[in-house]
Design brief:
The protein is mainly alpha-helical and about 150 residues long. It has a domain at about 70-145. The chain is about 65% helix and about 10% strand. It contains four helices and three strands; from the N terminus they run βαββααα. The protein has a three-stranded antiparallel sheet, with no helix packed on it. Keywords: Membrane, Transmembrane, Transmembrane helix.
Amino acid sequence: MTATTEAAPARTTRRTAERAEEAGKPGARKTATLHLPLVTVQFRAPQMHMPGRREMTDAGRTVTGFLPSPSRLAYYTGLGMVAAFGVIDWPVAVAIGAGTWIAQRGRREAAHEEEGGEQRAERKAGEQRAERKAGEEQAAEEKPARRSGRAKK
């Protein structure tokens, strides 16, 4: 006597009437359930957030803030094309691009430091003018007091 056993076939369940109604609603998550002999598996569609116009605009502004100026972008594009067509080797193109970027950055920092130095000089001159003016006002107050014979304290 040989006994044969058949494995229970895998079957998917149908959604209940409530789930079918919920699936029609906006924002409802879609699910699929698979019942196996020892395991029940449920698959859910991920909830994805689609960015709105404002978020896309903000992201675009952030990205453009990191891009080089249009003339620099044209320079780097041309350098890349020259390397792509084999006029110069790509390591040479990378070295030229990196050297240009570092030199440009150094130039910007030097200009920024000059601005800072000029601003410090202007601030110091303004402080000196204010001290001089305060000293002149104090001297002007002391002159009438000396004439009358009494000093202000």
